[in-house]
Every structure is written in C-alpha cells, then in structure tokens.
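Explain the record.
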Amino acid sequence: MIFKEDRYLEKIPFVSLEKAQEIAKDYPTPFYLYDEKGIIENVEALKEAFSWNKGFKVYFAVKATPNPFIVKLLHEHGCGCDCSSKTELMIAKSLGITGDEIMFSSNDTPTDEYEYCDSLGGIINLDDITQIAKVHKALGRLPKKMFCRYNPGGVFNISNDIMDTPADAKYGMTTEQIYEAYRILKDLGVEEFGIHAFLASNTVTNDYYPKLAKILFKLIVNIKERTGITIKYVNLSGGIGIPYYPYQDPNDINEISERVKRAYDSILVENGITDVAICTELGRYMLGPYGALITKAINEKHTHKEYIGVDACAVNLMRPAMYGAYHHITVLGKEDEIAVHKYDITGSLCENNDKFAIDRVMPKIDMGDLLFIHDAGAHGFSMGYNYNGKLKSAEILLKEDGSYQLIRRAETPKDYFATFDCFDFYDELIKE
C-alpha cells in the first residue's frame, strides 16, 4: 500500500468509468487509450518553457509510441521526429516529415539506414567515430549538417532507475574521440555541427538537464578552443522522466529550463558563444502519463495468495515483467473506496513474472471491473510482442471533445500468421 502522511495515495485517471465502458462496447479490452488534451497541453508547456532559446526544437522519440496518429498530432504542434530505425524514418516520411524535422539517432547502424535518412534530408547523429568513414563511403560525401553523440564515461550520479553509468553504456564517443570526430567531419566538408548526449533515463528530478547541459556547454567551449569549430546545436536528449509512483512529485519543466538557461549564460555566453540552438528528444515525458492500458478483470484465484487475472498480459505492457517497473492501477469507478485487499494482478502468459502488480493493496475487485493501468503511454505498446501467440491490443485516441478514434486496430490471428504466407498451410491457419 502506498501512503504519504497517513493517507492512501491514488492517481487520477484521465477517463471515467462510464466513458471507458462506452469505448469498450466498440473496442473490447484490452486496449490502449491516449489523452489528446493532455498530450497537447504538455508539449505546449515544454515549448513555452524553452522559448528563451530562439532555435529550440522538440523532437519526439518515435520509439516511445510509434503510432502515426500520435506522431502527426505532435507534428501539428511543432514537433519533429527522433528516429532510431528505418521503419521509424518511414513513419516520418509517410507524414511528410523530412529534412531538419528528422533527427536520426541510432547505434550499430546498417549502412542502408544512413542512406535512407539522407534521402529524406534528415540529420544524422553519429554514435561512433568509426561510422564517419561508413557514412562517407555509403553516400559518397557527408551531409552539410551532422551531430555527434558524446559519452563522458564514469558514473553519472542522478536520481533515476534505469541508466546512470555512462561507462557501461554502449552509446557515444569518448572525449578524445569527440575532438577527433569533429576535425574529420570538418575536413570532409561538414559545415554545421551539433552535439548530443544521453546519460540517464527516467530521471524524476529537476537536476538532470541542468547537469547534462553544463557538461555539454563546457565541452563546446573546449571544442572551439582545440579545433576552432563552433557547435551550433545541442541535443539534450531524453531522460526527463515521469512520476510512476503516486507519492513522487513530477519534474518542473520551467525550473529545469531556467537552470539550463543559467548554465547557457554562464558558460556559453560568457565565452562568446551566443547562438546555440537547443533541442530535445523526449518520449516518456511527452507521452507516458497520457496513455493507459485498459483491461478487464476476468478471473480470480485464491491459493497461497489472492490473484486477479485480467485480459491483458505482458504482451500488452512488458515493463513490469521485464524489470519490475511500477505502474499504478486504478479500479475505475472505485476511486473513493477503501483499499484493504491485497492482490497480485496477473496476465495469462506461461511466465510467473507476467504480473502488473505484486502484493498491491487495492479496493475489492469484482469480475468485469475495468482496471486503468497508468503511465503506459510511452514504451508500452511499442515494446509488445507475441509470446504464447498472444495478440497486440488496439490503440485509441480520446479526443479533447470527448469523442474517441481507433488509431490502431487490434491484431488478429491472420496478422499473427501473415509471415507464413509462403507456405501451403497458410490458408488453413487463417480459416478461423
């Protein structure tokens, strides 16, 4: 049970029981639901917070929620695409998003993906110094604008729960490699330079961006002194997290931005570097709280523990099974009831870690109740898979006016068997 100051803490769903039931009549559970109003308000607040930087640009990390409807919605509000694969680049292209609206941040990258990004005019963010020759050979030249990804090594002490030891991370170049990379890029015709670093993930603190900014701003000063190259763009990456637990306070984007500005003024401006554009590639911060997995209680089991079985499983949301991630769960319609029952909330996979909650104290759950699994809007559907032959769920957009739209249908057995269409038994498989 989660308490603060002797009070049970609950999160507030962005949909009512009545609306969820209405949607479930058209699109059976489980399904993902996204809050259009919350998404728009959040991205506008982010842009306003950094409006002091005239070149500020938001790139949405497509990997977090790779749905064209979501990407289009964000693009309509000024966001570009941070892509990490060819298929994510294809989503951008399908929406008419090209050129500097694309940041291609990948690693261990196949050559054809560099070529595809270049065909769209996207910005290539190099993960390693060895990739310079690879890109040059593939394209016969280098683009006029390129970014490099930096990894200072060591331990990045910050409050987060996923990644904070850059020395163990496979991403980015060392300090000496960064200097050499920019020299090579300049010699090969690159004219505009950007720098990027991603040193921590899911930080629930206002310290991450300011600390990262100081590291990158100081490096920019050193790069200019050592190579004569002026870095014109700084990608602060993602990493700003969300409060998965109800007792956590959310990040204050205005305070974060103000502290980044102080570092900008004291490090860059003081050293005569006055025109550096800042960009971000946030995913979780932009979508996490504005998406939920809606699932129905369908079984109960009373053995050594009390179990509630739902019609979703780790196929639909694997974060809890993968690394014990916490997702708050609301029993819709019972928000005001006393939480006195302890449950494991489980899916139906043949794996014991297929649990959305363990020993969670909640209101009494009855069969047919709808459960709202919070903060699933990023790295939720996108991490899904088909173990046990389970099928991925639908995605639905709850619009500002209260209407709703199917933005990805649920998978069918025909989808699951589609890659067998080269075999004689395909027609038999899809008869059902």
